[in-house]
Design brief:
- By secondary structure, this protein is α/β, with parallel strands linked by helices.
- It has a domain of 86 residues: Nucleotidyltransferase, domain 5.
- Helices cover 30% and strands 19% of the residues.
- It has three helices and seven strands.
- It has a five-stranded mixed beta sheet with strand order 4-3-2-5-6, with helices on one face.
- Strand 3 and strand 4 form a beta hairpin.
- Involved in the TonB-dependent energy-dependent transport of various receptor-bound substrates.
Length: 135
Amino acid sequence: MAFQTQGDHDDVMSEINVTPLVDVMLVLLVVFIVTAPLLTNAVKVNLPETAATSPPEDKKAVDISVDRQGKIYIDRREVAPEALEAEFQALKAADPDPTVHLHADEGVLYGVVAKVMAAAEHTGITKLAMLTVAQ
């Protein structure tokens, strides 16, 4: 650290003031903490309410969403019901033991959800979790 006296006005100060940098970084951190939970599920579904449970802590799971109209989404990308089994086979080829989280709207017909679960079973996916809202 360099101390200045009243006679040392000719020297150039070579230290960087990091306080503004720290302030900006803390603001960015708060912004990311607030917005990150909003980006997890872009498909709007009303999940049914059940008793509180927690999914197992695994690697990154693939999100399958079924909305009220029966449209199926894999990680926010719409998939035709006929192509669902091929999509699951591609997931299985990329990862031999994928984890799948199924988000189904409470107003969707049970048959659509059953077809999604059957397609997962036919391709050999064993880690399938149905997500709900805790009461």
